[in-house]
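Hi everyone, sorry if this is the wrong subforum. Our group has a chain we'd like a structural model of before ordering constructs, and none of us has done structure prediction before. Sequence below.
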Amino acid sequence: MTENWTGRTIEVTLGSAGHGGFCVARHDGRVMFVRHGLPGEVVLAKVTEDRGGSFCRADAIEIVTASDDRVAPVCPISGPGGSGCCDYSHASLSAGRAMKSAVVNEQLRRIAGIDVEVTVEELPLTDDGTGWRTRVRLACDGSGRAGFHRFRSSTIVTDLSCPQVVPGMFEGLADASWRPGSELAVAFDSAGERHVVEIAPAAVSTTGRRSPGRRGASARRAASSRPRSERPVSGSGRVHETVSGREWELDATGFWQAHRGAAQAYSDVVADWADIGRGEVAWDLYGGVGVFAASVAAGAGQDGQVVSVEFSRRAAADGSAALADLTQVRFAPGRVERSIESLPSPDVVVLDPPRAGAGKDVVAAVAASAPRRIVHIGCDPASFARDVGLYRQAGFELESLRGFDAFPLTHHVECIALFVR
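Answer:
Right subforum, don't worry. Here is the predicted structure as tokens:
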């Protein structure tokens, strides 16, 4: 039986960066996933989670031999035992991007079976890696104080010293008392207005309240994803955003890219890679409020068609309002996997699925529709690599690939791929 190492401190040499914000180390035949270190460093790692088996999780609590890429942590609340967000806070921006590049490349080799070299790029308006985030969801603890979840925990760090957000985003929030168990959606829009919306606590089942294991976590996630009442506290709760000179109005709780430079950068890539011609048909799957639909509409012209499929009816309605002058664009609210069979045959498909990716059924349906070009956006290297492999199995060739540092100070990365047949 494997000894439980929880609480044990072990000196290890850290290897390469792994998917999830850690570096890989090995000790006594077991793998350790160590956070807060950098490749090549020698650290004292304290084991924080050990469920047996071949690996355990740990935090680097002391740096014995530091990397040249190490900097003084930019985030004061993300170290060992702290919040789970800024897990690259201790790395220079260039080192963070190099680690993200290595992770994307490794996932593509291991899962998709292709050997490519992606260099993760800086997004416009990143500056020094702070002050780039315009969207945040905060949790409120049992005393009504707002904060961030600790890493792999339901407990909350109520210090709002986050270096990612634009200046003034959290002003006054730490001093206020909120409904225990609620969440706060905070958005700073293109017009310079801050919106704070209090979201009612999720109605969690008995299993979710009492079980600390996977069943409880699953029940809590299911509860949080259900519709809940919302109360604007600051601002109207309706944000205004601009891409390529066009304005959208949408809910502060709706989806918009968190990095202030991301929406425009991705829209430009999509418009270029879609390369849609006059009179052609495009699908915009998981389309949100239609930013990508707008980016390809001009190429399709009045004789073409752009169909945006989005599960959120509110987002689809906001997109329809923003793109009312583009008669070639229409919104089809519904689940992507159920809607594809009713769509016109596409020449181009653009899709931006959630973190879990598109998956086998959606990729198969897209491939069966036989578009000449597919532009796929992914925000998780593993699910992205799986989808890349599925496209290749369906006969599509990966023609271009770019990675973007959409979440500086964290391990998260965004990738965009172009497939042709």
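For your construct planning: DSSP finds nine helices and 22 strands in the chain. The chain has three domains: 9-70, 135-188+194-234, 240-420.
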